[in-house]
Amino acid sequence: MSPVILRRVQKTLLVIGLIVTVLSACIVVAAYRNDAAIDANKGTVMADIVSADRLHAVAYFQTPDGQIVSPRLGLLYPTELGTGQRISVEYDTTNPDLARPAGRDWTLSIIPAASVAVIGWIVVVALMLLIAEGNRRWVRWSQRRAAAADEGPRPEPGPADERETVDA
């Protein structure tokens, strides 16, 4: 691989690492903004968890004006919720689709986002090292092969080389 191509590959990997890092930061900022919206127009009610898994929880709750709400994308921060639970939910009164279990906030998004960024950089660095080492070995192999070709083929000893010389 030529040095130019190697540099381009390495720069591309760095850009990918930066994109993953920026996206991780965006996750934390988005969680903060969602929580700020909830805190600005907070309503608190009891909700029934209809279904829950590690990443998603469906809940139904009734607002004070009598409207039954189930947030389209589920509750924010759904970890450790189980089907059939009855929990206190904080929601944005101007947008009831924005809801979270009471007492949870954006700080819960920091560890997952940081984990994604760190794992992304580990992968990027590992790929960069593998590519650099592979390129180094390929260059050394090419140089040895070129040096062997420059020497030319060595003639094998034949019957003419084994003749006795006659003294005159």
From TrEMBL:
Keyword Transmembrane among UniProt keywords: yes
Alphabetically ordered keywords of this record: Membrane, Transmembrane, Transmembrane helix
Transmembrane intervals: 12-32, 110-132
UniProt feature, compositional bias: Basic and acidic residues: 147-168
Superkingdom of the organism of origin: Bacteria
Annotated spans, Disordered: 144-168
Protein name per the record: DUF3592 domain-containing protein
